[in-house]
Amino acid sequence: MASFTNVIRSTLGEIAGINDVAEVAYPAGLPAAVRPIAVRNVALLIDYQSPAYAQLYSDRLRRFVGKRGVDDALFCEIAQLLAERMSYHDPIRIAQLKLQEPVTPGRKPAVDKRRFRLDELVSSLPDIVGKPAMRLLERVYCAHRTVQIRFSKASIVGIKRLEFEAWLRHWRRLSTRYEIERVWVERWLHMIDRALTRRPDAVDAVVQSATMIEGYGTGYRHGMAAWHQIIDGLAKPCFDGTLAMTDLSGAIERARAVPRDPKGEQLSKAIAELRLAH
Per residue in 97-150, pLDDT tens? Predict the structure, then answer.
């Protein structure tokens, strides 16, 4: 009962803007070259979620201000990729973007059809609802099934539905999907920190690894799984000192080039070969 009360309180706080900030504060000492990117992405994340969420983005950037080994070019890349990952595409975001599409007078708006896995849709719900629903889907072996959703501004009903779906952003930070993304972002940033300390030669490869994860559906799931395989099999052991690899950056790039399969077997084999070769 206490967890349910906390969810209701958090949801009401999101809707009412109680947990928001009046103005996003940028990190002191943020390089001039990075600031335009940060400003642009703060506006993006306010539209995506809220000023408080944009403040989280700014706070995450602070850890790289004045960091040894982080030049302007690398900082700009981190700032951009961080924003892209924090504005991940769930059904809520697709509805938001659809509402923002301009309408050409005299031309019927296009209907956007997207296919989502059921577990992906359920993971966008608040945990208190999403987790029981997920257990049910797994029990009846339907979690990986896909359904088609229409996003359209061709009718009043379609627009109202888009508006409702976009409004659901107030629940986004209470969802399982948000928690997965939060954990991933923090791990990616941590791996960048470790690369800067232990393997500066591989920093660019670790930063760019964020581009493995994009979109939604099966492609998104495979990208996320492959990223963790590469980090756990190559990067982390090198940072921990348990694997001696002279060209970690090259190994990460070669692993990324491996075609993805549902079980990640080809990538596992490739990683094993790369470890043996070094």
Answer: 999 998 888 788 888 899 888 888 888 888 888 888 888 888 888 888 888 999
End-to-end CA distance of the chain: 54
Amino acid at site 234:
L
The pLDDT tens digits for 101-111 are 988 887 888 88
For residues 264 and 231, the answer to whether their CB atoms sit within 8 Å is: no
How far, CA to CA in Å, does 226 sit from each of 89, 127, 233, 237? 19, 25, 10, 16
Length of the chain: 278
Contact 230, 209 (CB under 8 A): yes
**Which segments within 98-205 are labelled E, that is strand?**
112-117, 146-151
Got the DSSP string for 216-265? Answer: SHHHHHHHHHHHHHHIIIIIHHHHHTS---TTHHHHHHHHHTSPP-TT-H
Q: Is the dihedral of CA 30, 55, 67, 228 positive or negative?
A: negative
Among residues 115, 231, 228, 135, the alpha carbon closest in space to that of 180 is found at 228
For the chain, the structural domain boundaries read 1-87, 91-172, 175-278
For residue 134, the tally of other CB atoms under 10 A from its CB is 18
d(CA 257, CA 270): 10
Q: How far apart are CA 243 and CA 234, in angstroms?
A: 8
